[in-house]
Amino acid sequence: MNTKDIEKSKAHITVELIEYMENSVITKTIMHKSTGNVSAISFDSGEGLTETTSPFDTFLQIIDGEAHLVIDGKPTILKTGESIIVPAHKSSKITPKRTL
Description:
Blueprint: E1 25-33, E2 36-43, E3 49-53, E4 58-61, E5 66-71, E6 74-79, E7 83-86, E8 91-96
Antiparallel strand pairs: 1-2, 3-8, 4-7, 5-6, 5-8
């Protein structure tokens, strides 16, 4: 994982900051602070993140594709361009949405 912040005072296209890798979840830290981080994460189909709980609110935005998100047991489908805030101290799990 690269923990170097991206260049400040410069416009960035988030989807271009991170690559997809086969059979992987890739995380790129955009900003790292003691009060929390901003990260971009890419998922290959069939990959995801295990259930987590954060001491901070977590902002999630789908920049490409669809994802299945569960916050405190409540499922939500997010699509490209949509975002949601996971409240601090609430469990969440995210996986790419699979088309059957």
